[in-house]
Amino acid sequence: MKPYKTTASRIVWSSPWYRIRQDELLLPDGSSGVYNVVEKPPAVWIVPLTLAGKVVLIRNYRYTVDDWCLEIPAGSQQPQQRLAETAAQELREEIGGVARNLAYVGQFYTANGICNEISHVFLATGVTLGPPSREPTEVMETRQVSVSEALHLAATNQISDGPSALALLLCAERLRALDG
Question: What is the pTM of this model?
């Protein structure tokens, strides 16, 4: 049995990327409460490994935190699109990458205290790079690093984007096996 009962729900704000739902609740102790939920479509994070055995990272300017962040390619799933299609599309758009193989690794919740987004991790191997086709708001540059450096950056908080760091760590065993 669920500890909360939703008594009413409404969308209080919406944009093309996400919306905010406000729920009125009956709490476990019998009192009333309100919870705001950021609703987002599922998203993908892609760990790209080139034919030369390098992990491709993105140095991305994030307006929200006014900082340059190391990340991996990622993006939201579009309606009627399969997750693997989203992963391949984001790889092409952000780093100009095409993968020989795209393997599903697993999933996690991005920010489960405020958001319902489910993040899906893919490992892209045999990646060749070409010109990216980024959106106007994407200010990025790519950086290729060894598998050991990528995992070190994730494990030592030098990749401050949590989902990117977690995706790399979830792929660690497979990356090390491919690094030979």
Answer: 0.94
